[in-house]
Design goal:
Elements (H helix, E strand, L loop, with lengths): L12 H14 L3 H32 L5 H19 L1
Amino acid sequence: MAKGNIKTFKMPEQLGAEAKREMKRSGMTQSELYRAALRRYLEQQRRFRAVQEYGIAAAKRAGFKTEEEIIQAAVQVRRERKGKRR
């Protein structure tokens, strides 16, 4: 692996113990495990933001102005669907 920046951080003992067990189980080094975990976290955050941005744009196109309006519409749709299943 190419040289990189060294980062130091603290973590709760229990989380450190879990990381150590995972390193042993997977055969990964500590650096490999932490890099993989950070990559996964960053990818999940990127996806979450993309879905959130899509939802905000869709809500605006549908004419919603507040989250409360969206929640009320969702509750209404669920009631209507529940009534059709009976």
